Amino acid sequence: MASANKSTGLQIALVFTVMTAVIALVVAFLEYRSAVTAEAEKNTERDKVNAVEKERSVATTGLQNLRQYLGYPNTDEIGKNDSEGDNTVIGQLKSLSLRVAPGELTQPTMAATLQRIGQELDTLQKELGAKNQQVVDLNKQILGLRTEYQAMVDAHKQAQQKAENDRNDAQASKEEAVTQKEKQINDQQSKIQTLQAETSQVRSDADKRDTANNARIATLTNTNQGLRTEKDAREKWSFEVPSGKVEWVDLDTKHVWINRGSRDHLRKGTTFSVYKQVNEGVARGLRDIKGAIEVISVSDNMAMARITRDRIHDPIVKGDPIYTPLWEPGRKEKFAVVGLIDLDNDGVYDREVLHDLIAASGGVIVDEVDDKGVRHPTNGAITVDTKFLVEGTIPDAYEAKPEDKESFRLIGEAHKKMVTEAQEHGVRIVTLNDFLNYLGYEPGRRIWRAGVTQGWNLHQGMQGNVARPDSKNRPESLGKTSRLFSNPTGQQTESLGTTSGQIKNGQ
Fold it and tell me: Residue 488, preceding bond cis, omega within 30 degrees?
């Protein structure tokens, strides 16, 4: 029993061993077969790789040859069809194509570009052939012109030679005459030099005489001006005539009537100075002025005026002559003004008031130097038509404030120039105060006002009412006049005998 079991075990082990061997053989066979197959496939793939490598080598060589042919041997990247403007071969070729053959192509290829360039080259060659033919034709024309030109040159040379021969003959015949002329010219130049020297001496002597004469004229002018001033002061002679006279006087109402009216172009507001009937001449002696009046009402041939200044001991009476330099019947008087204008000595300039005074009476300022020293008009000049040169205050530039020095200096220079012009044209020079007295101007009364720091004094406070032009309408006269004016006989009426009650009561 035990032997049988042992034999069975051996059989099983033998079968197992045989089967293992068989399996191992099968596996070995399969591995061998697989290795053979793999080796065959490897050899096949190696052959394919070799073929591809050969093809790549051929392609690389072809690309390199293509790059070399196209002119880009060192450009590694070929580029894509849409490459443009980059560093690839295709991109650079496109840029080159656009540069050498601009415009649209039938196909965006190098062949199309070369074909187009070839066509253009053919066209240019044809045009070149035509141009060459034109050059040939032009050369023929140039040759013909050169022949004509040479003929003209030859003729010109012959004419030039003949002219030179003629010139030489003429020059030879005239050399003696030229020599004579040169001798005459030299003689004339010597005479001219002598005359120039004499003329220079004469001119020098004349200049010396002119200098001496100018100095003498200046001395005589100053002497003449001084003598004329002395003579005028001694003789008290006046160029002016009265502007009118007083016809009636009403001392009660302080009104007078003068023999000038609207027919004489007299204006309301015109002021007059009143003179003594026996005087040294109007606009000459201030001591002959006894008062001043201002026109307040104008009729056809007479005007009523109010008395703005008079003297108690020497009242205005009928027949007294009146005068103003601002007005003359049928004429517009012209004046020149220089200097600072202060009509009432209050330290405030009154240039505009002076303008109004003159304009109100029909006068006009034609030449003036303002407070800054500027002359108006800039090219102004005193002429014989100027009635007076009115001198205001001529300031001293050395004593002026720093801001006024330049203005005062200009005023002083203008004053000297205008005085000279007035003397040369016979124009009278009057001070501002005399001018105001001549026209009967009265400065305004000074009134103290609280808060005003101006230093008024008794002399300023005693001044009378101002006679200034007024833009407002003046009140018209009520028509009441003095009994003297309504009584043509001029006889005084007797007293009615009625006295005041205070006198009757002895008070």
Answer: no
